[in-house]
Each structure stands twice: as structure tokens, then as C-alpha cells.
Amino acid sequence: MKKLALHWKIIIGMVLGILFGFAMNSIGDSGRTFVSNWIAPFGTIFINLLKLIAVPLILASLIKGISDLKDISKIKVMGIRTISMYIGTTLIAIIIGLSIVNLVKPGTGMSPETIESIKTTFECNADVMIGKAKVTQDAGPLQPLIDIFPSNIFNSFSDADGKPSMLQIIFFALFVGICLLLVPVKKAKPLVDFFDSLNEVVMKMVDLIMLFAPYAVFALMANVIIAFDDTAILVKLLSYAGCVVLGLALMIGFYLILIKVYTKKSPIWFLKQISPAQLLAFSTSSSAATLPVTMERVEEHLGVDKEVSGFVLPVGATVNMDGTSLYQGIAAVFIMQVIWPEGLTFTNQIVIIATALLASIGSAAVPSAGMVMLVIVLESIGFPAELLPIGLALIFAVDRPLDMCRTVINVTGDATVSMMVAKSLDKLHDSKPKEWDDNCEAVK
Q1: What's the pLDDT band for 26 if we cut at 50, 70, 90?
Q2: CATH of region 6-424, choose from 1.10.287.130, 1.10.260.40, 1.10.3860.10, 3.30.1330.30
Q3: Is there a contact between 285 and 382 (Cβ–Cβ < 8 Å)?
């Protein structure tokens, strides 16, 4: 009997997790406590395992990919095409978001009572996000550039909060890869072989970790459901959430057009091959945590050469946030429609496009980072400071589920651009993925 495909196992785990979460919510505090104490930790373990291999995967993939190019001029060509495509898709995402929110106008007609209720519930959370954004703004205009260059690469693997600095790691990997091209082949070979072997080992670790994915997704979704039980506020924000989801769906359609027209591949085939990474992105809300799986799917299932995926995907997980950019455009205009309609000028919306594009590049690939960058987008158009906590509180109730949705778009955009770059460099091949059983033995 044919084994059930991984993406179907993950979907089943997701559905069961949602149903289990609602069931535990109906029990009350004891049910939610049970999920928090005995179910959610398994999802956390799974995410930690993915984060564990993210840094060695980026190092091994980038260094091996750059050293395999043999010619430094190829790095320039690949880099220019990658960044150009990422900027192009991000601009399309922002324009789609602004078009929808201006046509639907989800923020008009919200009652003062609803606004006050949301403000009371979520203002403390909003203050935290404003504080984080303030730190980012106070750092200076060139601080993001300074932050790319590490003073100690080992410190880059984990900051004070335990999070790696992906841009610094990418810079270090590119630097090492370029230097390997500049030294004699004989002397570079031992280090190249080491990173080649490390890459193979890490990809095997991805295979092992993904065997646990359906159970982890069950735990993650159950924990998400018990965290959102205030249905009254969620219903009132349904129109806003619908705009975001519609925009994200249109972005998926845009990607599929690019896949069909540019790479000459079947859109249905593309969705089938990338779906495990999409489902994992939805569950974790982190494109960085999903990166190992994205790389495995793109290389083994979409046929992108490793030297392309090893460069394009780590960069994309750091700087390409199409879903986040689309959300920021919709969220900013929605907030203005509710509490600052006089700010809805054409000039301000042009500023939103530019700022959301830059903010997406600086947005961390972790849950709710888009909310922090939204503060910067709003302040760039002169949004009244006294209204900012209320504005963020308006959308906080549905931010987590929308964050899950927009992370899917971020990951899908990375995979799409990697295929396009590979196609432009004649590095896109027919994929021959391995199928693995539960004992990690290759199925013939």
C-alpha cells in the first residue's frame, strides 16, 4: 500500500490539533493548562531542533555553494538577480495590499466601544512592540549596515536573547566562500570537502526531524487555538483579516504565474512539492525555523541546484518578507481608516510603499517581527504618537493567525525566486526526490 505523503500527514496533524485545541478550550482553564503543560512543549522541541540546524545549514550551504561557482563573477550575477527579484516581488506585494485595503475599506464604521474594548485588552502588548521599535530607530540610519559585519562570528551564532544574527552569518559564509575561490584549489579542498560533508549531514538531520513534523504541528496548532478564545473581538476584526488573507492569496497566484510563465513548470506540481515547507511555516510563524525544510524541498523536490539554493534561500529568509510587507501596507491603512482618516493621503501611501519595502529587509525572520516594523512604517508618515498604542491594539487580536499566514507567503516567495534564479542561470533540473520510510531508509 502506498505510504501517505508527508504533506498529508502534516495537514492531518494540523486539523486534529485545531479540533483538540477547541475541545480543550471548551473545558475551560483546566483544558488550556493541560495543553500548555503537556502538549505545547513538543511543538517547542520541534522548533528548537529546526533552529539548532539552521546556522550550520546556512554556513555549509553558502560556503559550499560559493566555492562551487569557481568564478567570482558568477557571485555578482547571482547576487544582482536575487536581490532584484526579491525587491520586485516585495513591491508587488505592497501594491496588492494597498489596493485591497483602499477598495474594501475595512476600517470604516468601527464603533468607539469596540475600539475601546480592544485598546483595554491589548494596549500592554502594543507598548512592548513600540519599545522594541524605538530601540531599532534610535540605533541610527546606518546601524543596519554596521550590523551586517560581525566582530566575533561566534557571538553571531546567538545574541543576548538566544537568537542568531542571520545577516552576519550570511556575510561570514560569503566571505569564507569567496576566499576559498582565491586560494589554490589544493589548499582549499580540505575545507570545501568539510563543508560539503557537513551539508549532507545537516540535510539528513532535516529528514530525521521531519518524521516528527505531523505530531509537532498537532502540538503547535493546539497551543495556538487555546491562546485565542476571545471570539467577540475576532469577529469584529474579520473584515481586516479577510483583506490580509485575500492579499496573501493573490500573492500565491502571482507566484504560480511566475512559475508557469518563467520556469515552465506546473503550478500544481510546485505547490505539491513545496507544501511541507508551507505547512511548517504556517505552524511555526518563522521562515528562519522553516529554512532547513525549505532548502530540502527546493533542492530535492523542485530541482534547484545546491549552489543556487544555498545562496538564494538563506538571503531570502533574512531579507525577503513579501507577506510581511503586504500585511504592513494593509495594517497601516486600516489603522488610519479607524482612528486617523485625515492621514490617508496619496503621499503618505507612497511613503508606506517605500518604508514597508525597507522594513521588510530589516524584519527578523521570527514570529511577530512584522508588528515591530509596523511601528516604524506608521511613524514614517507622521502617525500621532498618542494614537500609536491604540492603533497597534486594534490589530493585535488577530496578529498571530495572520502572522502564520504571511509566513507561508514569505517561504513560498523564497522558493519561487530560487527557481527563477536557477532557471536564469540554467541551474534548474528535473527533480528526483528520495522517499523515506519511518526508519529513514530510502524507498526504492
Answers
A1: confident
A2: 1.10.3860.10
A3: no
